[in-house]
Amino acid sequence: MSLPLTSADLVGVDLAAADRDDATRRLIDLLAAAGRVTDADGFHADVRAREAQMATGMPGGVGLPHARSEHVTAPSLAVGKLREPVDWGAPDGPARLVFLIAAPAGGDADHLQILAALARRLVHESFRQSLLDAPDAATVAEIVQREVVPS
Questions:
Q1: Which pLDDT score is estimated for 150?
Q2: Is residue 66 flagged as an active site residue?
Q3: How do the domains of the chain map onto residue ranges?
Q4: Distance CA 3, CA 17 (A)
Q5: Annotated catalytic residue, options 44, 66, 71, 111
Q6: Domain PTS EIIA type-2 spans what residues (predicted)?
Q7: pTM of the model
Q8: What whole-number distance in Å separates Cα of residue 48 and Cα of residue 88?
């Protein structure tokens, strides 16, 4: 049986983060605690290397860090609602929502499918607002599973 892309234990609500690297690390810690990342430091290095190539901030207050890594055991999506916005390199300002896509090293197709499906939903303000308004991690996970995961 495959794991769902995301779940309540992969969602951080009211996350306090000093900067994008800190926010990323907090989401990686959720993935590691859930057993989806075998080496948090190794995966963090992979995400940082990807971010160094190009900032992954998107319009609408979104950060979209992502990486394929040998330290990832299953395609996963960690979601963070930040207490205070953090600069993610988007032209329209800092991010309040962060989506960390973690894909296994050989998971090119998974990684791109997740990224494309998420990007298609994130252009809609109603989707972003529904996540910001969600009262808890379980609701955020349910919205993402329903709206992003191909059925």
A1: 65
A2: yes
A3: 8-148
A4: 28
A5: 66
A6: 4-147
A7: 0.94
A8: 12
